[in-house]
Input
Amino acid sequence: MKTYSAKESELEKKWFIIDAEGKVLGRMATRIADVLRGKNKPIFTPHVDTGDFVVVVNAEKVKLTGNKLTGKVYYRHSGYPGGLKSTTPRKIIQEKPEELIRMAVMGMLPKNKLRDRLIKKLKVYKGKDHPHEAQQPQILEV
Output
């Protein structure tokens, strides 16, 4: 019996929509990462992009448990001396709530060239409106 390896030309990509209102960030991010990679399909192949598109709406209404809203700190470095910047999830939600979900999902994807292709299939929006109605996205429960 030969091992089946999925080919991108044979795949059909679906669109899913998630309403982030009241959902816990980490649990939602793991579900999104699985769908982006294609782990919910029987033809999953680790080195091939077998996943689907995911649209997330109401990003500003996502929930963080415990004291993560103020206690958790995100760091980034510019590469220059003294270039370490830090911020909390509360500040990110006020300024760009889409980035909080994107960063959570990005941390759960494989750290290789495939991650850049997978993260482009994630569309996150602040409010209820999104421009992907033509794709007829299915509701994805978290």
